[in-house]
Amino acid sequence: MAQQKSCSENESLHYARRKFFKQSTLLTALALTPPSLIKAAGDNLDEKASALFEKQSLEIEVNGKKHQLSVEPRVTLLDLLREQLHLTGSKKGCDYGQCGACTVHINGKRVLSCMSLAIMQDGKKITTIEGLAKGDELHPMQQAFIKHDGFQCGYCTPGQIMSAVACINEGHANNEDDIRQNMSGNICRCGAYPNIVDAIMEVKQKGGTI
Amino acid sequence: MINFDYIKPATQKAAIDALNKDATSQFIAGGTNLVDLMKRGVVSPQKLIDINNLPLKSIEQQKGFIRIGALTLNSDVAEHELIRKKLPLLSQALKAGASPQLRNMATVGGNMMQRTRCPYFYDTTMPCNKRQPGTGCGALKGYNRMHAILGASDKCIAVHPSDMCVALTALDATVVISSRKGDRRIPFADFHRLPGTTPEKDNNLQRGEMITAIEVPDNNEFSKKALYIKIRDRASYAFALISVAAALDIKGNTIQNARLAMGGVAHKPWRLTGAENFLKGKTASLENFNQAAAISMKDAKGYGYNNFKLKLAPNTIVQTLKTV
Predict the structure, then answer these.
(1) What are the chain A neighbours of B39 within 8 Å (beta carbons)?
(2) Residues A87 and A152 in one domain
(3) Considering its fold, how many domains does chain A have in total?
């Protein structure tokens, strides 16, 4: 019961259950540890066990909405978005910073959310693919991707679109070569590259910041 | 990823104190390499000290040099007007590295501190003297296509993966390092190490120290003819097989001074001092460029799969000198 009370009210049941499993697994492991080992570990053990549970508070704004959260330091921004905030648009492709499927904007800059620790984003503004459209009206880049058939399976598409928007706003979409160079951090296994370039070219030609 | 404690100190002093206090702690800035290594279990610090609150993000013109704060983002350095105008070689090298998303995260200090991408270092089931001293080098007789041809040892043939550092080596930069004892400065070329018998040490930064800035001389004579060429397996977003940073000071057709460094060939960014000395006072001719490349390759050695670099490296040197 103490564990349940420590959960803040806005945490989902799903999350509380996960936390329970984590804690109970560790407690079981501790219970199964031979007493001699526990003795050898000395007084530090309690401290270490509590450190394992420790979460830190985090305030971030995602797509215009503020969130007060608590996370373990090891949670990546991508996992936070997908699993705690249920924004599953950002995709986990490689999870090692090589494919770009997890691209989001932090304070307006495109970055890889799989390589960003959530705890390090305290006070920052995040935009994900879910934050681009205005209600039912798609963002110009989303419309252009549909028009030019800029995807097949669609898995890399949220990352491609987030990167494409940033690419134009950075001033790095002046011609096809420029676009290819500056979109190289987003891999598309279906090979929709020519259509992606066409989509970006069209949005760029309309001019302005998007 | 194994869990860890996390703090974000407000001052440089507090950050350095925290690092000294806890032997298992490590600084984190952009995290583009450290988070990767932690996910794979190659390193597992018990505490991360986030240094992003520290005011080390400026690019300033000082008398005779440009000072770049250690936390300046790779993308901000590459796009900065002062850097593009006065240190085009650095701007080009930065743009040749990683992807736009990673350049928006990675910092100058972190770029210097990044680890090798040797697959034997990354794979915790493989022997690696760098990751676990004394276990042997898996690459020596393994799949060593990406590996060193210069300055390696029988303990380690890994290469340093940075592009930025190749340019900074050529440009005679200085590293500013802070610790409890105060500041010290070391030449960029002396920052990274050769593997020798201690490949676990990538560089000469001591425990308890922090890189706070890079100072790069703004010699105008090297800003007009500067070129970074990077040869890799695809057109963009891949580590270098070979890269060459070249800056030439030419009057008429005579080379007054040359600055040359190579990446993808050694455990540290490789300055081509022999070739620089040879080119000084010579005409800018293909014959002299070929000679300079030959001098640079004098001690080169292949390890099997990377033998192609013994041809690719001198060809890239010549190509860079011709084009610049």
Answers:
(1) 95-96
(2) no
(3) 3
For B31-43, letters b (16+ CB in 10 Å) and e give bbbbbbbbbeebe
The pTM score is: 0.90
List the domain range (segments joined by +) for residue B10: 5-52
Chain A CB within 8 Å of residue B104 CB: yes
Return mean pLDDT, chain A. Answer: 85
Please name the residue of chain A whose CA is at the shortest distance from the CA of residue B45: A74
Cβ–Cβ gap B102/A103 under 8 Å: no
For the cut 60, the answer to whether the pLDDT of residue B270 exceeds it is yes
What's the pLDDT tens digit per position in B132-171?
Answer: 999 999 999 999 999 999 999 999 999 999 999 999 999 9
Which residues, other chains included, contact A171 with Cβ-Cβ below 8 Å and sequence gap of 6+?
Answer: none
Q: Are A182 and A170 in contact (CB under 8 A)?
A: yes
- At residue A153, does pLDDT exceed 80? yes
Task: Give the closest-approach CA distance of A182 to chain B in angstroms.
Answer: 6
Q: Which of B254, B90, B285 is nearest to B170 (CA)?
A: B90
Number of domains in chain B: 2
The CATH number that applies at residue B41 is 3.30.43.10
Please enumerate in sequence order all residues whose Cβ is within 8 A of that of B59, keeping only pairs 6 or more positions apart, or say none: B66, B67, B68, B69, B72, B76, B77, B80, B82, B83
Q: Are B5 and A54 in contact (CB under 8 A)?
A: yes
Amino acid at position A192, single letter: A
Please report whether residue B19 resides in a domain. yes
Q: Which residues lie closer than 8 Å to B196 by C-beta, 6 or more apart? A: B153, B155
Q: Identify the band that residue A22 occupies on the pLDDT scale cut at 50, 70 and 90.
A: low
Which residue range forms the structural domain that includes residue A25?
Answer: 2-53
What the block records as the tokens of B224 is 């007009």
Neighboring chain A residues of B52 at a CB cutoff of 8 Å: 120
Give A3's pLDDT tier (boundaries 50, 70, 90). very low
Give the domain CATH number at A126: 3.10.20.30
Residues whose CB falls within 8 Å of the CB of residue B287, separated by 6 or more in sequence, listed in order: none
Distance (Å, whole) CA A93 – CA B155: 35
User: What is the average pLDDT score of chain B?
Assistant: 97
Q: Strand pairing of A103-106 and A65-71? A: unpaired
Supply the pLDDT for residue A23: 56
Average of per-residue pLDDT across A122-141: 97
